[in-house]
Design a protein that fits this description.
300 residues; mainly alpha; globular
Length: 300
């Protein structure tokens, strides 16, 4: 019996919330096996399955891709169109704004946001990893298309800027480029290096944030187990009597508002008043007021 692509199925399970995972994945599997494979063959059925998974991801997380793309576009434009001195036209902005608009800081921060949102949406850290990793892949693919689409026009602008000419000469002088390398060739490979470095950062960051989310999730689980054990211990002490363990007795009293009242024990001459809550009057000795339903005994 044919199965859908394992990677796509794994992404789907990390993409869906827990209450929808079995239902949606089961429906897609049934459609894949009973309708798509017999009708169009396994290869095209695999493409259909990938398209369904990709559509679900986009519907859930497309809005996280847009700010990263805009940030990278703005950063590249202002990096290309510099003053002749090399100063960026963004240098006059406040330091915090400049830091946020930095492609590294901004992109990493938005990937962290994707991890948090994906983990919250699916109630699992794997959902955060799927969200952030998808954002990284789409952003890197956009960067490749953007660099290739804008290379010629941006190269003409940079070739007329003394700052970029000086950077080209510096690379040749420090043996980062061949002595006879042209400016356009140098700029092309500089862009390729930037894409490679960006790809590494975008690939590693989701796994780092995913690992942090996994650790936090485990800590929450361990904390819940410990709190449950402490509560069970306090309840067992309360049921069996805390006399053998005085420190735990104090902890139990602190949690419950004080020691339990023992009405059967001797009170060493203290007066024990029985108050009838239904009538508000103390009953006669040895009798119970008619119609009384409950009474509390208080050590005076």
């Amino acid at each position: 019996m044919p199965n859908p692509p394992a990677v796509a199925e794994l992404i789907l399970r990390g993409l869906l919330p827990l209450d929808m995972r079995e239902t949606v994945s089961g429906d897609l599997l049934e459609e894949y096996r009973e309708s798509r494979v017999p009708a169009v063959g396994e290869f095209r059925a695999d493409l259909w399955y990938w398209r369904q998974v990709g559509g679900m991801w986009l519907r859930a997380y497309w809005w996280l891709v847009v700010p990263v793309v805009l940030l990278l576009v703005v950063s590249d434009v202002f990096n290309t169109y510099r003053a002749p001195s090399g100063a960026s036209y963004l240098d006059g902005l406040p330091t915090l704004v400049t830091a946020v608009m930095s492609p590294i800081v901004g992109a990493v921060g938005l990937l962290g946001l994707a991890t948090v949102y994906g983990s919250w949406r699916t109630r699992r850290w794997q959902g955060g990893l799927v969200a952030a990793l998808g954002v990284s892949v789409l952003v890197w693919l956009f960067m490749v298309l953007w660099v290739n689409a804008t290379f010629q026009s941006f190269a003409q602008v940079q070739q007329a800027n003394p700052y970029w000419i000086q950077a080209w000469h510096w690379s040749i002088a420090h043996h980062h480029a061949a002595p006879d390398e042209t400016f356009v060739h140098w700029l092309y490979w500089d862009n390729v290096g930037a894409l490679v470095m960006a790809g590494i950062v975008l690939l590693v960051t989701p796994f780092v944030f995913g690992g942090i989310a996994a650790v936090i999730g485990e800590i929450q689980v361990i904390r819940g187990v410990l709190l449950g054990l402490v509560a069970a211990l306090l309840v067992s002490i309360g049921l069996t009597g805390p006399r053998p363990v005085p420190p735990l007795e104090v902890a139990l009293w602190a949690a419950t508002g004080g020691p339990p009242l023992d009405f059967e024990a001797a009170h060493d001459g203290q007066v024990v008043a029985h108050m009838d809550l239904m009538r508000g009057l103390p009953p006669a000795a040895g009798s119970k007021a008619p119609g009384a339903r409950s009474a509390f005994s208080v050590v005076a």
